[in-house]
TrEMBL record:
Organism expressing this protein natively: Syntrophorhabdus aromaticivorans
GO molecular function, one term: protein histidine kinase activity
Sequence ranges assigned to domain Histidine kinase/HSP90-like ATPase in this UniProt record: 670-761
Catalytic activity line of the entry: ATP + protein L-histidine = ADP + protein N-phospho-L-histidine
PANTHER family: NITRATE/NITRITE SENSOR PROTEIN NARX-RELATED (PTHR24421), NITRATE_NITRITE SENSOR PROTEIN NARQ (PTHR24421:SF10)
InterPro entries registered for this protein in UniProt: HATPase_C_sf (IPR036890), HATPase_dom (IPR003594), Sensor_HK_TwoCompSys (IPR050482)
Highest taxon in the source lineage: Bacteria
Pfam families found in the cross-reference section: HATPase_c (PF02518)
Membrane spanning residue stretches: 132-153, 165-186, 198-221, 233-251, 257-275, 287-309, 321-338, 350-371, 377-398, 492-513
Name by which UniProt lists this protein: histidine kinase
Gene3D superfamilies membership: 1.20.5.1930, Histidine kinase-like ATPase, C-terminal domain (3.30.565.10)
GO biological process: phosphorelay signal transduction system
Keyword terms, alphabetized: Kinase, Membrane, Transferase, Transmembrane, Transmembrane helix, Two-component regulatory system
Enzyme nomenclature, EC number: 2.7.13.3
Length: 777
């Protein structure tokens, strides 16, 4: 079923072709004497300005009578602009009917004043044929066709929206002004009286009503004025008043109304230009104002101002009125360049329509000439309606054929949205996030053949662009908002903003399209769907990468726990296993010993080993509980261990802490076990060998390192001891290395053992260990 837009387009096109066909028929069959007339104001007579070779009249002749009828000003006048009153208008119609009847005879006698003498000349009127095409007024016919085509094209783009209907009405009324005026002025003297009367009444009505529609349209540009939104009935009241004034046929009032409406239209456009702040709308109104300047300016300068000053025109309105076509032309340019009335692409898809109209008009011309050679002028129906029926019947077929041909030649194949998305999906399948961004850029370029495309993404030099689009999503028309139109070059029109969990992930800046500048609604809809698909792909890729990272981290953590577990059990085997073996051997010796002293010594050693074994088991159990331990609990355990080991031996003990590990950092099992063993080994050496009276332990978390130092005031260490010879020092350094740290021993007044381990970078600890494996001062 045909939609509203197509129905209106087809109906108006048929009416337009009928009007053109009727005008051409009337002009083709109008009587001609082979002369051009002009009114001589001084003598009050119609004089021959020029004549054709076959005419019996000469330039300078004054026609005073036609077929026994005395002629005056109204009989030979063809332009209604000179009609002053309603009565004069009706008299003009009657005079034209009389003249037509006289000139329709095969032969007619003319009273001609030549060289001061009145004489009677018998003439034979002819059909005008296509001689009217040489008349300068033919430009009005061309202007009417152009205005009608612009109106139809604009209406097809925006449909029954308020602006579209008003623009269509305005275009049709201006077209009627041009066509009816051209038909009257291109006839030599007169054409069929009924049509002459109808065309001139339509012309008189269309002039003020067209101006009213033009003023109404300016109130809707670039957007509807607020008072029209609040009081929509004002528009109907306005048109009602205009129709009543025109229906009165009071010519001076109608002329005054037309002038007022034109002035109000100009004022409305100037107001819209000055009030509008957005750059795109300001550019739109600038071009609309330019259209009024070029459309009305020539007429104002040539005729309006002279009429106010000297009371008459400098010339007729033939040329100056033709400039009115610039008003819709400049509006069309504002649509094409700056999306006036929110129309995306004005001429896309209209080439076939315009070409069809032009071709069928040529067909109409041809059949008109052919049929009029075989039918008399009185047979209007065959001369007009047969060509019209033919061109209307061919309209749909010819238009569709031309559309297919144009699309094939210029490769204007419109890709369906589903195909664009499917093409992108094939590209993006299995890609990483950055690859998906590149696939989106390729898909957009393939679908639209954009002149320039730029991508700004997170992590590169496009951070400033991403900040500009903070909080924005989807497709952004850059020229519709000042903050974007001022920031980006004019060659960029649309931005695709891809968002993620932390804001804009990437922004695609799209340049112009081939053959046009702005993107149509269909283009924007395809881009929006494509962006949504790409965003889903990108989010899935990010989620996959995050899951993969977490899985790897989990595997690394599980491997670390397994390594810790293996190291702990190996340590348990070496520690508890060795102690148990020693206890077993000493027990065997005690059982086999016959000396009470040897037996007592063995049992004493077994007791000490048992205590050491209990300590090893406690240390092991503490390392197992260290899954949820913190550095605070580790420090507290060091405090408890120091007190329990040193105080019974009358050694003063003090633990000092500084710094903060920060964040949620926690020591691992292996870390806690090795730190505790190194600490206990150092304290055991102090108890057994240092003869110290006090020990100071410092725990520091500064500059990303865990530092544990044990300083005593004892006898110090020999050079061999500081180099790791004996007393478990070598074993302590191996434990430090196992957790990525460095153990250093210094001697002086007492001894100092220092363990230094990176808090959050085991690799740094290993590098430190490799570079300072022998760092003992």
């Amino acid at each position: 079923m045909m939609n509203f837009n197509k129905s209106v387009t087809l109906g108006l096109t048929c009416g337009f072709l009928l009007l053109i066909a009727l005008s051409l028929h009337l002009l083709y069959n109008s009587p001609s004497l082979g002369i051009a007339l002009e009114w001589d104001l001084a003598s009050g007579e119609h004089k021959v300005a020029s004549s054709k070779p076959w005419s019996r009249l000469k330039a300078g002749d004054s026609i005073t009578g036609v077929g026994g009828l005395r002629v005056g000003f109204l009989h030979l006048q063809t332009d209604n602009i000179y009609i002053r009153t309603r009565d004069e208008l009706l008299s003009w119609f009657d005079a034209k009917r009389e003249i037509f009847e006289k000139l329709s005879q095969p032969h007619v006698s003319l009273l001609v004043l030549r060289d001061g003498q009145e004489r009677e000349i018998l003439v034979s009127p002819r059909k005008a044929g296509f001689s009217f095409l040489s008349n300068l007024v033919f430009i009005h016919l061309i202007a009417g066709i152009v205005v009608f085509l612009i109106g139809i094209i604009v209406f097809n783009k925006i449909g029954r929206r308020k602006q579209g209907l008003v623009f269509l009405v305005m275009s049709c009324l201006i077209m009627l002004i041009f066509i009816t005026n051209a038909t009257s002025l291109m006839s030599e003297i007169v054409y069929e009286p009924t049509c002459f009367k109808l065309f001139n009444i339509v012309n008189i009505f269309s002039l003020p009503l067209g101006s009213a529609a033009l003023f109404h349209l300016t109130l809707l540009l670039p957007r509807k004025r607020r008072f029209l939104e609040r009081f929509p009935a004002l528009a109907l009241l306005f048109y009602g008043i205009c129709i009543l004034i025109v229906a009165s046929l009071r010519i001076p009032v109608i002329n005054a109304l037309t002038a007022i409406l034109c002035a109000l239209s100009v004022a409305s456009v100037i107001c819209g230009f000055l009030v509008e702040k957005r750059p795109l709308e300001k550019q739109q109104m600038k071009w609309v104002l330019a259209g009024f300047l070029f459309g009305l300016g020539p007429w104002v300068l040539i005729n309006a101002i002279p009429m106010l000053v000297i009371g008459e025109r400098l010339t007729n309105d033939t040329v100056s009125a033709g400039f009115v076509v610039f008003i819709p032309l400049f509006m069309a340019f504002a649509i094409w360049k700056y999306r006036l009335m929110d129309i995306d692409t004005l001429f896309e898809g209209t080439f076939a329509y315009v070409t069809t109209i032009l071709l069928l008009s040529v067909v109409d011309f041809g059949f008109l000439g052919l049929l009029n050679n075989h039918f008399s002028a009185s047979q209007v129906i065959p001369g007009v309606f047969l060509p019209l029926l033919l061109v209307v019947s061919l309209y749909v077929v010819v238009r569709d054929r031309i559309r297919l041909f144009v699309r094939k030649v210029f490769r204007r194949i419109v890709l369906p949205e589903a195909d664009v998305i499917a093409s992108f999906s094939r590209r993006a399948k299995g890609l990483a996030p950055d690859g998906i961004l590149e696939a989106l850029a390729d898909a957009v370029q393939e679908a639209f053949h954009i002149k320039e495309l730029r991508v700004a993404r997170r992590g590169d030099t496009g951070e400033d662009v991403l900040k500009l689009f903070h909080g924005r999503t989807d497709v952004v028309n850059l020229w519709e908002e000042p903050q974007f139109s001022d920031f980006f070059p004019q060659r960029f029109f649309v931005a695709l903003v891809m968002t993620g969990g932390t804001g804009a992930e990437a922004v695609f800046l799209l340049g112009g399209l081939p053959g046009r500048r702005f993107y149509s609604r269909r283009d924007l809809a395809v881009l929006k769907a494509l962006l949504a698909q790409a965003t889903a792909f990108h989010e899935n890729a990010l989620l996959y990468d995050e899951n993969f990272r977490q899985r790897n981290a989990r595997l690394i953590e599980e491997q670390r726990h397994a390594d810790e577990k293996e190291a702990i059990f190996k340590d348990l085997h070496d520690g508890i296993g060795g102690i148990s073996a020693n206890i077993h051997l000493l027990a065997e010796l005690a059982l086999n010993s016959s000396s009470p002293a040897d037996m007592k010594k063995a049992l004493s050693t077994i007791s000490g080993l048992s205590q050491e074994g209990i300590s090893e088991i406690n240390t092991f159990l503490q390392s197992l509980d260290s899954e949820d331990a913190t550095y605070e609990t580790l420090t507290a355990e060091l405090q408890h261990t120091g007190n329990s080991m040193l105080v019974p031996h009358r050694i003063d003990f003090r633990l000092e802490r500084s710094g903060n590990p920060g964040g949620d950092a926690r020591p691992g099992r292996l870390f806690s076990l090795n730190v505790t063993r190194i600490y206990k080994e150092a304290l055991t050496n102090v108890i057994k060998h240092a003869k110290a009276r006090s020990v100071v332990v410092r725990v520091d978390f500064s500059v990303g390192f865990f530092t544990l130092s044990i300083r005593d005031d004892g006898t110090g260490l020999s050079e061999g001891m500081t180099k790791g010879q004996g007393r478990g020092i070598d074993n302590m350094k191996k434990r430090a290395k196992n957790i990525g740290g460095v153990l250093s021993i210094s001697a002086g007044k007492g001894a100092c053992v220092e363990l230094r381990v990176p808090l959050s970078c085991p690799e740094a600890g290993r590098a430190l260990q490799n570079g300072n494996a022998a760092a003992v001062s």
